[in-house]
Amino acid sequence: MHPQGKNEIEKVLEKLKSKAETCQRCRLHKTKTRIVFGVGPATADIMIVSEAPGYWEDQRGEPFVGAAGKNLNALLLQAGLKREEVYIANILKCRPPANRDPLPDEIEACRPLLEGQISAIKPKFIIALGRISAGELLGRPVTMSKEHGSLVDCTYAGTSFKLFPTYHPAAGIYSGRTKLELQNDFRKLGEMFKKV
Ligand code: URA
C-alpha cells in the first residue's frame, strides 16, 4: 500500500507541474514550446527516468512520443509492461535546443522537480535510460557499458528504490549492438519482476 492516497499524490504532482510551467530557473524556458512534465499513474511501482524532451515531446508536451517513444513502448512489452502502468519522466522538463545533452546547470535547476516527483510517487523500481539519468540518480558518473542491466539499491531525494540502469532507447536506433543489449536488458528486467 502506498503511504499516501492517490488523490494527495496527484495534487502534489499537479502543483509541481504548475511550477514547471512558469519556471525560469535556466535558459531552456526561452526556447521550449511546451514543458514535458511526466505521465503515468501517481502510485506507479515502476518509474522511468530519461534525459530530456526531444522535438515531438516538446511539440506535444508528453514524454516519449517520437521515434524513441515507439522504441520504448516495444522495450516495455519485452519486460511484460504496458506504457500505461509506468510513470515516465525526464531529468529536464524543457527541450535542449537541437537535442543536445543537458548541461550541469540545467540539471541542477530542474532537480527539485524530479526530486518532487520521486518523493511523491515513491516507486519501488526506477529504470534509468542513459548515463546522464543513471548518473543523476546515483550521484556519480556511470559507464553504461559496465553498469547496465542489473538492479542496484539507490536513494534519491530521501526515497529508496531499486535502480535498473540501461541505455537510452535512441542509442538503440543508431547501433545494432546497443539495440540487442537494450532488448536483453528489458527481457532480463521482466524475469526479475517475476521474482519480486
Ligand atoms: N528522449 C528522452 O530522453 N526523453 C523523451 O521524453 C523523449 C526522448
From the structure above, extract its key features.
196 residues; five-stranded mixed sheet; alpha/beta; binds uracil; Uracil-DNA Glycosylase, subunit E
What does this structure look like?
The protein has 196 residues and is of the alpha/beta class. It has a single domain (25-195), classed as Uracil-DNA Glycosylase, subunit E. 46% of the residues lie in helices and 14% in strands. It contains 8 helices and 5 strands; from the N terminus they run H-E-H-H-E-H-E-H-H-E-E-H-H. A 5-stranded mixed β-sheet has the order 2-1-3-5-4. Strand 4 and strand 5 form a beta hairpin. Helix 1 runs antiparallel to helix 4 (104-121) and helix 3 (67-78) packs across helix 8. The protein is globular and about 40 Å long. It starts with 5 loop residues before the first helix and ends with a helix. 43% of the residues are buried. The model has no long low-confidence stretch (mean pLDDT 95). Uracil binds next to loops.
The CATH architecture designation is 3-Layer(aba) Sandwich
- Can you give the mean pLDDT? 95
Q: Main β-sheet: number of strands, strand sense, barrel status?
A: 5 strands, mixed
Helix content: 40-55%
Provide the low-confidence segments as ranges. Answer: none
What's this, in brief?
With 196 residues, the chain is α/β, with parallel strands linked by helices. It contains eight helices and five strands; from the N terminus they run αβααβαβααββαα. Strands 2-1-3-5-4 form a five-stranded mixed beta sheet.
